[in-house]
Amino acid sequence: MPRALITGITGQDGQHLAEFLHEKGYEVFGLMKGQNNPKIGPLLAEFPYIRIVSGDLTDFASLVAAIRTVQPNEIYNLGAISFVAISFTQAELTSNVTGLGVLRMLEAIRLVGGEKDNPIRFYQASSSEMYGKVREIPQTELTAFHPRSPYGVAKVFGHHMTVNYRESYGLHASSGILFNHEGPRRGYEFVTRKISSSVARIKLGMQDKLLLGNLAAKRDWGYAGDYVKAMWLMLQQDKPDDYVIATGETHEITEFLQLAFECAGLGDWRKYVGQDKQYFRPAEVDLLVGDASKAEKTLGWKREVDFPALVEMMVRHDLDLEAKRAK
Ligand code: NAP
Ligand code: G4F
Prior knowledge:
This protein is an alpha/beta fold. It has helices at residues 12-23, 40-46, 60-70, 84-89, 91-112, 150-169, 191-203, 224-235, 253-263, 293-298, 307-326; strands spanning 3-7, 27-32, 51-54, 74-77, 114-115, 118-119, 121-127, 172-178, 181-182, 210-212, 218-219, 222-223, 242-245, 251-252, 273-275.
């Protein structure tokens, strides 16, 4: 039974990946920080097969201990301060967890090593935020980076470290440059979930208005369930490499709003949506659209859920959830 260690197990991708790997017959271990993390109970209630290991990406010794305990065949480094907006006000913490955390994990792997004939394979969760003020459209594995937030800068550091450890020490370390991916497990702080949950609450009479920031930004939004398959495929290749994972389509936030409000039968979104300065960022990423042709060709990866289906999935899920909560 192959063993996988996932950091960021309580996050959106950690949950999807745990489910995916369990179905593939893996023993799934999740790194969890804190002395009594309140997310443990709900996580194990939904995924009883996950085995929790204590550790923190800011604590090197805890990563070494976790790898020694688990003896994983594969490590998926999904743990991060991942909310771009908060990275502006907590830049040092973001750099430590999202940036230096990658280096600590790579060093821990180098130290512990793994089985001689079957060394540990490593996946780094890189991000389209690294492209920031984009240098070309669409963005590929070769597009230069120009990050626009402390989060983006930290991800560039982690990305280059992953490439460097692969080239310097021969680690099987791959980096997935994933564009935005969403779904019903998305955190409420991100714009798509903020919209889908607000639409549901407005529909049920629990909320009147939805306040957002910049509505002109464009994102390449895919479904998280499709994207975790790509992570796994990267680690099944003989050679480690970097891959863009994206849909190749970009949509303005207003398009997400339109579909979401229509799906709930609320009509024109402009009746409900306002703007608030607090949700604008000091610097913005205006447009992201990725070219995933390398992943499609080499990994055989293909997204299955398109943009309208993604919006509908999220709104329908939140309508059910909020209705249950209201009872
Ligand atoms: P998420 O839902 O925000 O989850 C982040 C996870 O990181 C949580 O489980 C969190 O644990 C954990 N974490 C935070 N600080 C930590 C620390 N010091 N030590 C160990 N773990 C820590 O993120 P996601 O959407 O699943 O994304 C997964 C990864 O992919 C992240 O690295 C993100 O930056 C990257 N990424 C995401 C997207 C996207 O669109 N979703 C796109 C590109 C890249 P707690 O719950 O205990 O705080
Ligand atoms: O949903 P967001 O917060 O996601 P963002 O900044 O694109 O970051 C996400 O995707 C990255 C991949 O590109 C990941 F690496 C990262 O970890 C994270 O998962 O914001 C999307 C856009 C931004 O342009 C933001 O300014 O929506 C705009 N926006 C407008 N109003 C808002 C709001 N974003 C949020 N969160 N809340 C608003 O009220």
